[in-house]
Design brief:
Elements lengths: L2 E7 L3 H11 L4 E7 L8 H6 L5 E5 L10 H14 L5 E6 L2 E3 L3 H10 L14 H12 L14 H21 L20 E3 H9 L1 H8 L9 H7 L21 E3 L17 H6 L4 E3 L3 H14 L7 H5 L3
Parallel strand pairs: 1-2, 1-4, 2-3, 7-8
Antiparallel strand pairs: 4-6, 5-8
């Protein structure tokens, strides 16, 4: 079985290079989207880091927090990868890392072949359901500007404009989903590992996805879960047997210690927890925050740690 790794990255090129080396394997191909806002991305160096896998690197969309361009980048990478066809498609961020060598990851997915590794939120409260509905039913016209600027007052002004716009729509009874009777919107993690069949289903519905979610709040957390929930693929979902530390998408993520809508960045003292989680992948990591942990994770995933990594490959 061959695997496609789809990676969305925007910074920390040394760490991205490390990730590409860890994923480099004869049975893998790598598809990387670099944020168009990113500066000084060493594309040639990143390509040269990969020796056994095929690698394609594109830089098409400017991705802002909560914007639909995240969905567009995901659909683009899926489309690129499906030209060749794979057993599984794994979406990672540039700040993710595998927690196992590739041989073990391949064995795990072979053992669970046909399962879809998509995470759904378990919060079924009335308020959570209302919030999910608002994210898709209303036009979120200004939300994507709320973290775009360096000047905090400008970001604050756009947040207030978005809240005012939503309030007016609620008073007017706006509901964009009326055109889609019976559609049930679901949400969860943006990151996934899916089969070729589900990847084909998503791409066949790409125009529909744009129609439903283009003006949604953080559509990257909605579109795949909604497609799965409203199709027979929901019967193919993987359900983990662990203690809850590992999500159904096989990612270890710590939201409890995160801030401002972002997950916690792991530190070296978290290494034993990561290793014992049973997950195939974890996020997020930063060489700027804790290079020693990234080195330990590199060893855990079967790679060579440290800055000498590039020199050892003859670069």
């Amino acid at each position: 079985m061959r695997h496609a790794y789809l990676i969305i990255a925007h910074a920390q090129w040394d760490q991205l290079e490390r990730l590409l080396r860890l994923l480099d394997h004869p049975d893998n191909d790598l598809y990387v989207h670099i944020d168009r806002k990113a500066r000084d991305c060493p594309v040639d160096r990143l390509r040269a880091a990969v020796r056994s896998s095929g690698v394609e690197i594109v830089q098409r969309y400017r991705i802002y927090w909560g914007s639909f361009e995240m969905v567009e980048a995901t659909l683009l990478l899926l489309e690129m990868a499906r030209r060749r066809g794979y057993g599984y498609y794994h979406l990672l961020s540039g700040m993710d890392m595998p927690t196992r060598p590739q041989a073990e990851i391949h064995a795990f997915f072979a053992q669970n072949a046909g399962k879809e590794f998509v995470e759904f939120s378990t919060d079924a409260s009335r308020e959570a359901n209302r919030e999910v509905g608002r994210r898709a039913r209303l036009y979120h016209l200004f939300m994507h500007f709320s973290r775009r600027f360096r000047l905090r007052p400008l970001n604050w002004a756009f947040r207030q404009a978005d809240r005012a716009c939503l309030l007016v729509q609620m008073l007017l009874g706006v509901d964009r989903l009326r055109r889609f009777p019976g559609l049930e919107v679901r949400y969860g993690s943006s990151w996934f590992s899916i089969t070729d069949e589900l990847a084909a289903c998503v791409l066949e519905r790409s125009d529909w996805i744009r129609e439903v979610f283009r003006f949604a709040n953080s559509a990257d957390e909605l579109f795949l879960q909604t497609v799965v929930h409203n199709t027979p693929f929901r019967d193919r979902l993987y359900h983990p047997e662990y203690d809850g530390s590992c999500l159904a998408n096989q990612r270890l993520v710590d939201w409890k210690r995160g801030r401002n809508g972002s997950p916690y960045t792991f530190r070296l003292e978290d290494f034993d927890q990561i290793r014992a989680s049973g997950c195939m992948f974890a996020r997020k990591f930063s060489m700027d925050a804790d290079r020693a942990l990234v080195d330990r994770m590199t060893e855990l995933a079967g790679g060579a740690p440290g800055p000498s990594n590039r020199k050892s490959q003859g670069e």
